[in-house]
Specification:
CATH class: Alpha Beta
Number of helices: 2
Structural class: alpha+beta
Shape: elongated
CATH topology: Thiol Ester Dehydrase, Chain A
CATH architecture: Roll
Length: about 130
């Protein structure tokens, strides 16, 4: 599991005064890349051992505000033969209380871009996620 601090920008806020629903996908994408980079490093062969995003889900529990200090916890929920599911929990700290505001998942498929086909989840990647 990794914790990724999220900078909430003024442009993330909608007319209702909270983070717009579509922006959470950007937060989760950033957290996902930080998580993966921590697992396999920057020398990973993304062309032959990459991944495709197949699905996203988001549940909005509590609005996130411009003044909130936010972080996303990312972990692996499930690993299959050719795909895996990452789980995200976005928390904010308000008045010393840690509040879960948003949860989500992403299904990713291991993919070889040279051969243009799905591949088995690399063993090194599985070991790092577990």
């Amino acid at each position: 599991m990794t914790n990724t601090p999220i900078q909430i920008r003024f442009s993330d806020i909608d007319s209702m005064g909270h983070v717009n629903n579509a922006v959470y996908l950007n937060y989760f994408e950033y957290a996902r890349m930080m998580y993966i980079n921590e697992l396999v490093g920057s020398d990973w062969d993304w062309i032959n051992r990459g991944m495709l995003l197949a699905n996203n889900t988001i549940d909005y529990l509590v609005p996130v505000l411009l003044t909130d200090k936010a972080e996303v916890e990312t972990s692996c929920l499930k690993i299959g033969n050719k795909s895996f599911i990452l789980e995200y929990n976005l928390y904010v700290n308000r008045k010393g209380e840690r509040i879960k505001c948003t949860t989500g998942t992403s299904t990713l498929v291991s993919f070889n871009y040279t051969e243009n086909k799905s591949i088995l989840v690399p063993e090194e990647f599985k070991k790092a996620m577990l």
